[in-house]
Specification:
single chain; about 375 residues; alpha/beta; Rossmann fold; 3 domains; six-stranded mixed sheet; three-stranded parallel sheet; 11 helices; 14 strands; about 45% helix; elongated
Length: about 375
């Protein structure tokens, strides 16, 4: 009998110890879960990896400072390869894992698929870089850090007509980002009563720009509302055609083009962006320094957008006095939307001072960056 009692006592003790360890483990693992998708592989992987790196750096800084009321954050990005199908699959997987709030998707096509699901679940997301207008339209849970496509198209038309006489444009008819910016550019050019020449390409013809460049050889500037990979090919086509004086001007998708060109490209290349890696602003300079220390390279605009997006979530949750690590995605969405759209909520980030209204659009001042080769 005594031996039985000892055995029972030992089992009870072991159970208590196991329960204690489990409780401690659960306590250590408790964290607010930020999720998102982006192209971590494939031709657009530069964007996804930059956003992922910036977001991870922000999470590490927040956690090192004590998290939110002592509760840390965790961040996970699923690889969507810039595909709407993979973005939808990634969304489902993240929700199954307990995602409570999100950065949405990196590219516009993917984010459209992500946004449809997020709207149905009332999940708050603030995309760092999906600029297509429809991503946030009529979705009260949807916000963005970057400029919208119409903003960049209108700004480009205004600037180029002020600085140049003969204007050309090359855009991608198969890409929502490119065609969206172009549509706004086209509309503003009509409003300004200015003429220009345009050439197009699509997913099947985006490797050879010789004919397009030749057709625009008399232009002073070529507007490129496209991504950096194709912009690099356009720049090299200009060299091949001996057109080294034509100015190439783009939008935030050109961030990364410096790695696509070499010293043979002498064309002036500049683009619209909210982020200047050489800024002397203290917050931006510290971000650049910390990013370079961690990753061994300077951040681009997408890294800065990802970094800012995480901090916006953190500040909005702090303003909402969120203190329940098990809060549902829908309840958290309602709290964060109320705070981020409040008149007194602003965030001064690495990409400028930002403010939002119920449309989800971000208001901030753009910067024109010129590539230094």
């Amino acid at each position: 009998m005594k031996n039985l009692k000892k055995v029972i006592a030992v089992l009870v003790a072991l159970t208590l110890i196991a329960t204690c360890f489990a409780a401690c483990s659960n306590k250590e693992e408790a964290a607010y879960f930020i999720g998102g998708t982006g192209p971590l592989t494939g031709p657009n992987q530069s964007y996804g990896n930059s956003v992922n790196n910036g977001a991870m750096l922000a999470v590490e800084e927040i956690n090192a400072a004590g998290g939110l009321n002592g509760v840390p954050f965790k961040f996970e990005m699923k690889d969507d390869k810039a595909s709407d199908v993979d973005a939808a699959t990634g969304y489902d997987a993240l929700m199954d894992d307990g995602m409570q709030i999100s950065l949405g998707s990196v590219t516009s096509g993917s984010c459209e698929a992500f946004a449809k699901r997020a709207f149905e679940d009332n999940l708050f997301f603030i995309t760092p870089s999906a600029s297509q207008e429809s991503v946030i339209t009529d979705r009260p849970n949807a916000f963005r850090v970057c400029f919208g496509d119409p903003d960049q198209g209108i700004l480009a038309a205004q600037k180029l007509t002020k600085d140049y006489e003969k204007i050309g444009c090359i855009y991608d008819t198969s890409d929502t980002y490119s065609s969206g910016i172009y549509a706004a550019f086209e509309g503003e050019m009509k409003n300004l009563n200015k003429e220009y020449e345009v050439r197009t390409f699509d997913a099947e013809t985006k490797t050879d720009f010789s004919a397009s460049v030749e057709a625009l050889k008399d232009c002073d500037v070529i507007f490129l509302p496209i991504y950096y990979t194709e912009a690099g090919l356009v720049a090299r086509a200009c060299v091949d055609k001996g057109l080294k004086d034509i100015v190439l001007f783009g939008c935030d998708g050109l961030d990364g083009v410096a790695a696509q060109i070499d010293e043979t490209v002498t064309n002036k290349i500049s683009y619209i962006t909210p982020f200047d890696v050489n800024s002397t602003d203290e917050k931006t300079a510290n971000f650049v320094k910390n990013y370079e220390t961690k990753y061994g390279s300077k951040p681009d605009q997408f890294a800065a957008d990802g970094y800012d997006a995480v901090y916006v979530i953190f500040e909005a949750m702090k303003a909402a006095n969120v203190n329940d690590v098990n809060i549902s995605a829908s309840d958290l969405c309602d709290l964060v939307v109320k705070e981020i759209t409040a008149d007194d909520f602003t965030y001064a980030g690495t990409t400028g001072e930002m403010k939002w209204d119920a449309s989800g659009a971000c208001t901030k001042v753009p910067v024109i960056v010129e590539i230094n080769k």
